[in-house]
Amino acid sequence: MQVTKLTTISFAVAAALAVSACGKKEEPAADKAAGGAPAAETVKIGFAAPLTGPQAHYGEEYKNGVTLAIEDANAEKPTIGGKPVTFELDAQDDQADPKTATQLAQKFVDDKVVGIIGHFNSGCAIPASKIYSDAGIPMIAMATSPVFTSQGFKNTFRSMTSDTQQGSVMGKFVVDTLKAKKVVIVDDRTAYGQGLADEFEKAVKAAGGEVAKREFTNDKATDFAAILTSIKGVGPDVIFYGGADAQSAPMAKQMKRLGLKAPLISGEMTKTPTFLQLAGKEAEGSIASLAGLPLDQMPKGKDYEARYKARFKMDVATYSPYGYDATRALIQAMKDANSSDPKAYMPVLAKIKYSGVTSSNWTYDDKGDLKDGGITVYKVEGGQWKVMQTIGGGAASAAPAAASAAQ
């Protein structure tokens, strides 16, 4: 017994001398990063949008903005709760399909992401939001349907204006500015397209315009000959389409070929470079709206544009600045709350005051809708989207071009 005790003491003394010679006790490798600094804790943020299929161009550009935001945040060496953190993006393809979206939502919950940027489509964001709400995970979606933030959930926030804001502006615009008296509306029956068309119709009627006809198609259609032939008989001043550029572009081409003189009016899913490419010369005269100021008039738009081009070797299209700001707002809420726990930072996000690329006053109302909700109206001239008018949201600094009356 005595030998065992002495041997134990000898080992203890040897260990103490070793620690003294090194200056400190060796830390486990898992707790250290390069250079001996504490390893950063990984904070995972989920992202969901269509990354394949006909809407992939929307999702990829959206994801680029989110990626740039996370890279910028990590470059700032962030700390939360006194510890270094690294933000990590978990990007998933929901294929613009509600069923896939809900499956991904459950996967994100199981993987313990702390927040969601997305979903892109209203039809995906609305059913997924219930799953995130039940799990207490905040989501900042691109979805514009009024339903998204009207469900009574505390976790739903927007990246852009809602269809209520955009549709009401455009309905009034076509009556008051374009002097359109007879309006025809077509939508794709998606939560986005129908929702935008519904709000547009309300605003047209409120402004004293007539909705002479309402038609619908679907988000896979490309042949609109029957619908447009029926519409031609009405003699509309404008034709409004609620839906994506995969449908609005062939619709614009077929309108011109059938001899329809009315311009095509649509929302932000038409205000894309893809629409110009698909519609070609028949895009000329088409009009579309988009949330906020034009990129070169956004508070930090020029800087963002330059850095985006340098990073991704392409131009900013439509959605990436909003994805960037949504991600930075989410991260700021965590830093302000000094916690990445959704329960701790979600109330802070609801009251966030963030100055970003798209707005110097990124704040939410009690539903999760953005308060700073300006709309810019664009028209295709010379094969390019040109600003016609910016309405609200700090538009006083804009220099809108005179709007052309509907022919």
Automatic annotation (TrEMBL):
UniProt xrefs under PROSITE patterns: PROKAR_LIPOPROTEIN
Can you name this protein?
Answer: Amino acid/amide ABC transporter substrate-binding protein, HAAT family (TC 3.A.1.4.-)
Q: What's a GO biological-process term for it?
A: amino acid transport
Alphabetically sorted, this entry's keywords are: Amino-acid transport, Signal, Transport
Chain ranges of the Leucine-binding protein domain = 42-381
Query: Which domain of life does this protein belong to?
Result: Bacteria
Signal peptide range equals 1-21
What high-level taxonomic lineage is stated for the organism?
Bacteria, Pseudomonadati, Pseudomonadota, Betaproteobacteria, Neisseriales
Which family does the UniProt entry place this protein in?
A: Belongs to the leucine-binding protein family.
Query: A Pfam family matched by this chain, by name?
Result: Peripla_BP_6
